[in-house]
Amino acid sequence: MTKIDLTDSLEKIPVKIFPDPQSGSAFVAREIAALIRQKEAAGKKTVIGLATGSSPKTLYAELVRMHKEEGLSFKNVITFNLDQYYPMDKDALQSYHYFMRKNLFEHTDIDPANYHLPDGMIPKDKVKEHCLNYEKQIEEAGGLDLQILGIGVNGHIGFNEPGSGIHSKTRLISLDNSTRIANAYEFGHMSQVPRMAITMGINTILKSKKIILMAWGQTKAPVIKKAVEEDDTEDIPASLLQNHDDCTFVIDETGAAELTRLKVPGSPANVIGPRA
Ligand code: F6R
Predict the structure, then answer these.
(1) Closest C-alpha to ligand 1, atom 4
(2) Which protein residue has the closest C-alpha to ligand 1 atom 1?
(3) Is pTM beyond 0.85 here?
(4) With contact defined as beta carbons under 8 Å apart, do 123 and 136 qualify?
C-alpha cells in the first residue's frame, strides 16, 4: 500500500468549499458588495479586476440582482478585465467586451468610462505601448483592491499559460492548445479560436490587495489540488498565488474532490482546513 505523508497535504492557499456555484458566487458577491460600500463610505472608489468565461457568470448574475433589488451601486467602481483575445473586435459576440456588457455592465449603473479591457484590435506595433498603458491606468486608479479569477484546466490565470513567470506583466501571449480546445464552445469550432490574447501578467495580478479565485466542477479538481497543495511552479501559474497573503479559492464540492482533506479522512487539512 502506498504510504501517504499527511504533513505534505496541507493547503497552502485558503480554500472555501460551497455546495454549488450559486452559494459560492453569493459569498463572493457579498464580499464585493461589502468592499464597495466600505470604500464608498470612506469617499473612495473601488478598483476591481474582472474575469470572463463560465465561472464568474453566476457571480455577475448575483451582482446584477443586488444592484436591482438591494441598491448596490457601481457608480464608484472602476474595473479592469484580465484579458482579451487577439485579434478580436470589441463588438464581436466572442469578445470579452461583449461578454462583460451582456453579463454585468449593461445591467448596472457603472459609468462606461470606468470599465477597461485590453484592446483586441490594437495594431501589433502598438501592443507593447498599450500593455504598458494598461498597467499605468491600473496604478493611476490606485491599484486593484480585489482581483476575481477563474482557473484553466492547465492552471492558467488570466491567459497566463504555463511557463508564465511571477514577474510577468500585461502582454501579448500565445494561447495553449488546451485553452483553445476548452474555449472552442464560445466560437463553434476550435479553428476559429484566436491563437493569441492580451493578458494581465502574474505580477499584475499579485499586486492586487485581495484575490478571489472561483472554480466549479470536476474538470477543475486535479488542477485545484496541484495549485493549493503542491509546490508553487510556473508550470501551474495558479500555484504562484501561494505567494500572495490575501488570496482565497472559492470552489464547489466537485471542484474540491481531489483535495487531500476530502480524499484522505483524518488528514491534517481535513481537520484544520477552512470550510465555508
Ligand atoms: C478569462 C480568464 C480565464 C478563465 C479560465 C476559466 O477572463 O481569465 O483564465 O477564467 O480559462 O474559464 P472558465 O470559467 O470558462 O472555465
Answers:
(1) 150
(2) 52
(3) yes
(4) no
